[in-house]
Amino acid sequence: MPAAGPSGNPFRNRRMCDAAHDGMLITLRCNGCRRTLHFWAADLVKVVGEHHQVHLAPWPCSRCQTADFIDVSWTVPGAAMLTGLTVRRPVRKIERWLWRNEKA
Question: Model pTM greater than 0.85?
Fold first, then answer.
């Protein structure tokens, strides 16, 4: 039997806060440039919010600049899976000023 995909009803899909509560590891793989990144769901809740659906890519690929080829998967990792695995963690949020030129 094939695995069920995401529902058309967003209230039936797994949310990021649910994945964080279960201690899940979110894996983003860009099939355009073959880049794979791993994130803790608890960290992604801080960045994208708790109501973001897990099966949707939180942002486009930084190399390809598109979200069309991103495949999102999630697992509860075991100790053997975490050995040697690089996980991206947020450090701090940076706010900056945006400037524009105006005629005087």
Answer: no
